[in-house]
Amino acid sequence: MNISLNENLAKKKRRFFKVDTQQKPLYTDLKSSKSSCVLELKDVTKSFGGLVAVGSASLAFSKGKITGLIGPNGAGKTTVFNLITGFLKPDSGIICFNGYTINGRPPWQIAQLGIGRLFQDVRVFDKLTALENVLLAKKEQPGENPLVSLLRRKSALDAEEKNMDEAKKWLKFVELEEKEDSLAENLSYGQQKLLAIARLLAGGFEVLLLDEPTAGINPQMVKSVLDVIRRLAQEGKTVVVIEHNMSVIMEISDWVYFMDEGKVVTFGLPKEILGDPEVRKAYLGI
Amino acid sequence: MICIYLILSLSLNLLVGYTGLLSLCHAAFYGIGAYASTLLITKFGLNFFLALPAGVGITMILSLLVAYPSLRLKGDYFILTAFGFQIIVFSVLYNWVGLTRGPYGIPGIPKPSLLGFEFDSLPLFLLLSAVFALLVFFVLYRISASPFGRVLKAIREDELVASALGKNVANFKIWAFMIAGGIAAIAGSLYAGYVTYIDPTSFTLDESIFILAIILVGGSGNIRGPIVGTIFMIILPEALRFLGIPDTIAPNVRQMIYGALLVFLMFFRAQGIAGEYKFE
Question: Are residues B147 and A144, on separate chains, in Cβ contact within 8 Å?
């Protein structure tokens, strides 16, 4: 049953992307890592006028691993996320997800394929309740078709009930269960951040791109968030974290990329990277 | 007329209050619906109850003309596009004399009738339009309280995040336009059947602004706002008659009172009397 479902999905993807199915996924050896590469950027460049935001960058992210993306402000880290999620189109290069090229695809298609993103600035839906925010993450809800909603098909009502239970579970997970009926705008910044994390988790994404997930939340909650991130990786998710807090990077990352001026300067184990004199000079100023 | 404006404001609320599209062309949809059903009745002899859904269908298709640009344009640019669509529709209705009789309008539109029963008196027409208004309320209530309505609100709040969650924003906006346009066409068909005469001056930019004012006064983003706004804006002029203002200046004074009320509301309750969403 699972095999046929996977085959159907693969067929759907092949039709959708019109890619050569014989084409092998691009793969960059992640040193000693034996886990497979889920997401890869190969020689990706993005310029804004004369400014090269990302210049011929190649990065690969593995299943079940947490990869840190560090670098000074303006290094191009968030631009990499924007390129992966389709908010920006690369000028050149290839972005590959599970063997399929996703260059230039709109963000909603990329999200539906399984790449989710936590934004640097929280970006919750202010006028929606916490529960509604989380409910929105669920993909392919039957009730999102207005005709199905109008007719109140049983399938839609059942799905909504199931989604509601699941959304409540995620709110409880981030300890916001008592705030489910509060408008997101009435939550504190830290709570909004947790809500955004709950929303991302509810989406069931295969790849999670987290842009400063711990910024603005209290130390106790930072610990919980890091636990969640670790658990997600253990469950086989591919996690990429942009973080300025070096202790967080040291604590959770399996691999770290260091970027500066749009280029990948170096890549390695967290200890290696933070011990690199070039990194220390460029990033830490020591 | 209160039921007709209720239908118009409820449908515009789907675009303005739920999807965050400040549409200034609702009278164009209203006019297309009125002309489409009227022409089907007068030229092809269709019954009102057949011409109405046909008019709705035609308007839904034509609403795509403004839905598509809305996918790429935001904020002020979208407002100007909708404004342009309104002007184009008015110009077509005014100048395509062979089809619409232009400024002469179309007189003698038959009153709606069903199985030989004619809705020819005011109470009967009120009943008919109230039934349609209730039907529209029911449809919009169900839609807006559903996951579909939730996505529209998310698009209004942050279109980019909605797409990052896998929502095909373009599709949802097209749906919103088609539904809002189609429902405005119901109001247009009812209006034609009510006054039995239509001309392009009933579907001008002024009318679009008036429908938008209903939403702004009553409030948007929920189903209550348009109802409150319609009652307020339609009943208010009647209530002002009791002020004893001389007939010669009454219309102008009423306009001034309207304007002053709008300014007052924008200052002290920008989300409208019963609204939950405030335009930034």
Answer: yes
The full set of domain ranges for chain B reads 2-204
pLDDT beneath 70: ranges in chain B: 277-280
> For residue A116, which residues of chain B lie inside 8 Å, CB to CB?
164-165
Q: How many CB pairs under 8 A join A and B?
A: 89
Q: Which of A108, A132, A145 sits opposite B163 (nearest CB)?
A: A108
C-alpha closest to that of B195 among B130, B135, B125, B251: B125
Q: What local confidence, expressed as pLDDT, does residue A196 receive?
A: 93
Provide the pairing of β-strand B117-118 with B113-114: antiparallel
Take residue A102 and report the two structure tokens written for it. 């996703």
By Cβ distance, the residue of A116, A139, A146 closest to B143 is A146
Instruction: Report the mean per-residue pLDDT for chain B.
Output: 89
Per-domain boundaries in chain A: 28-116+238-286
- A104: CB partners within 8 A, 6+ apart: A86, A89, A90
Which CATH architecture does the domain made up of A28-116+238-286 adopt? Answer: 3-Layer(aba) Sandwich (3.40)
Q: What is the pLDDT of residues A194-244, one digit of tens each?
A: 899 999 999 989 999 999 988 877 888 888 889 889 988 998 999 999 988
Is B168's CB within 8 Å of A108's CB? yes
B137 in contact with A, Cβ within 8 Å? no
CA nearest neighbour of A64 among A251, A231, A217, A247: A231
Whether the predicted interface score ipTM is above 0.85: no
How close is the nearest chain A Cα to the Cα of B92, in Å?
A: 31
- Inter-chain CB proximity A132 and B163 less than 8 Å: no
Residues in A closer than 8 angstroms to B179, CB to CB, are 146
Digit-coded pLDDT (tens) for B53-109: 999 999 999 998 888 877 777 778 888 888 999 999 999 999 999 899 989 999 989
Tabulate helix, strand, coil % of chain B (nearest 5). Answer: 75, 5, 20
